[in-house]
Amino acid sequence: MNAGELLANSLSPDQATRENATQKLEQASRENYPGYVHTLASELANEASPVFVRNAAGLALKNALTARDSARQAEYSNRWLSLDVKIRNEIKEFVLRGLHSEQVKAGTVSAQSVAAIATVELPQGQWPDLIEILLRFINTGTSVPLRQSTLSAIGFICEVLDPDVLSVRADEILTAVVHGARKEEASTDVQLAAMQALYNSLSFIRENFEREGERNYIMQVVCEATQSPSVQVQAMAFECLVRIMTLYYNKMAYYMERALFGLTVMGMKSEEEAVALQAIEFWTSVAEEETNLESDYLDAQEGLLDGEIEPPKYFAKIALPEVVPVLLQLLTRQDEDAEEGEWNVSMAAGTCLSFLAQAVHDPIVPAVIPFIEANIKQENWHQREAAVMAFGSILVGPDPTVLTPLVNQALPILINMMSDPQSQVKDTTAWTLGRICESLITSIKPDVHLHALVSALVAGLQDSPHIIANCCWALMNLADGLYELYDSSEEQNTGPLSPYFEGIVGALLQVTETAGNESNYRTSAYEAITSFVQQATPDCLQVVSNTALKILDRMEHLLNVQNQILGADDRNNWNDLQSNLCSVTVSVIRKLGVGIQPLADRVMTLLLQLIQSAGKTSTILEDAFLVIGSLSAAIESKFAPYIPAFLPFLYPALKAYDDTQLCTVAVGIIGDITRALGDQTEQYAQAFVTVLLENLSSEVLNRNVKISILACFGDIALAIGPKFEPYLETAMTVLRQAAALQANPLDYESIDYIANLREGILEAHTGVITGFKKTERAQLLVSHVPAILELVQKVLADDNSGEPLDKLAYGVIGDLADAFPSGELKPLLLAEWIGTSLVSRKGYDKETKTTIKWAREMVKRATA
Question: How open is the CA angle 52-55-57, to the nearest 5 degrees?
Answer without folding.
Answer: 115
